[in-house]
Amino acid sequence: MHVAVAGTALLSAPMLQRTAAEEHNRLTLWLNEDCCLARESAAGYRHALQGFADPRTIIVPAISTLTWRTAAALRAKAEAGHHVILESAFTFADGDVAERQCRTVSDMFGLPVQLNRERTENATSYLQYRWPVEALVRSFGEPVYIRAGDQHPIAHHFGNRIVAARRSIGRGEMTFLGSPLGPLLFAEDREATFLIRRMIAEPV
Amino acid sequence: VKKSVGDNLIPKGMSLEDGLRLVKRAGFDGIEMWLGGQPWFEMSASDADLHALAGKIRDAGLQVSDVANTLDWSENVSDRDPRKREAAFRHIERQIVAAQIFGSDAILVVAGIVTEDNPYNEVYGRCVDAMKQLGAKAAAARVKIGVENCCAEQRFLLSPREFGTFLNDVNSPSVGIHLDTGNIHDGGFAEQWIEMLGPRITCMHVKDTLRHRGRCGHETVYPGIFLGDNNWPLIRNAMRKVGYDRWIVAEIEDRYRFAPDQQFLNTAAVMDRFISGRM
């Protein structure tokens, strides 16, 4: 296992028991909150990325309470050369909180994200990833959308709405996932597993 | 084997005390308490309220066979939404506490609801993880969690082999199956489930079923015991074979339109015939 736990980690939670092997980690899971979804997502990444090593990668699983301070810390990591993969679970936050977090992502990372205003009864559909590989994966709840800008879109929903994007920040990079991948990894989704492995293997 | 009936069968408008008297008069040994099912047993009930409730049940000469809940259908441990999942943990933990207060050793949960938006593989992993965590809490309280087979409604754990694999993955002696003889519909045969999962059965719902899948509008597929397609002599033999000697609980969806008290009397009489083997 080459996965470390940072942030306000919940090491006592069953999914996140720290093992001796993790002391030799070279990839970081940044656990931000005490939430079953974040823990599940983190467990998914740990399961999918066993044996993978990339000292530059920081994954923030299923975040639903992104504060300005946390965002600033993540930006600093990206500027220093890390590849920060920020996974949004904003869709599960209350309306005002989710709106605020979207603004934080927009202001701090230059990614103009927005909640889907037209929530549908059946939230699930498939997302089409185009980078780093072509893959279809299920959405997890209503995705957060990204307006077109100077970022590189990497996944779309219903043809043209951007749901994941990456952009350079300083010497590093930010990849924003508008729909969590971690729970799909926890469910051992083949395409999602292949996708995340390639995502962290791609050079920044 | 002792017989019980759910407190959710007590007709609306009837007081708890009158309902308990009716259950006792019908000849039941115990009652299944449904969290969220009746005004006397809600999430808002304090420990003191539960102790008072336990006293009333005891005074009526009844035991609590098990503690079920109606809340899992709207707040489930397999839900994608973490708020609903955490709420599900809270009410299952409350069931465990209530079981202790009521002097029961079994609770019923509906673990896992597969929908278009919540696919099977996700539900499976989440349920295994949840039952591992809750199993540890149940063990500490000396209570067993019975995961109900709601095959048709849940679209989850559809065969006895699959259910066995699930319990193996959970790997907790405090987590078993609350077997419902009616929920299998045309997807199998209750007696085979009993044979295959025998020692892991924490409690049993005895319910008849019509072997067509699902519901047709508001028409029930769960008629009264002996009126459906279950093979009750085979079910009884399977129970004897695996040595099942715990509670059987009547769960009845189809309600008498008139004289609702008669339904308790008739159901108890039918269960006596089943227990004695006079079929």
Task: Write structural notes for this entry.
Chain A contains 5 helices and 11 strands. Chain A has helices at 36-48, 68-79, 95-109, 182-186, 190-201, and strands spanning 4-7, 28-31, 57-63, 83-88, 113-114, 126-129, 135-138, 145-146, 152-157, 161-169, 172-177. Residues 7-24 of chain A have low confidence and may be disordered. Chain B has an 8-stranded parallel sheet with strand order 3-2-1-8-7-6-5-4. Chain B is 42% helix and 15% strand. In chain B, α4 links the parallel β4 (106-109) and β5. Chain B starts with a strand and ends with a helix. The radius of gyration of chain B is 18 Å and the shape is globular. Chain B is α/β, with parallel strands linked by helices. Chain B has helices at residues 16-26, 47-59, 82-102, 120-140, 151-154, 160-170, 190-197, 232-242, 260-276, and strands at residues 2-6, 30-35, 63-69, 106-109, 144-148, 175-180, 201-206, 247-250. Classes of the chains: A alpha/beta (204), B alpha/beta (279). The interface between A and B is medium-sized, with 23 and 19 residues.
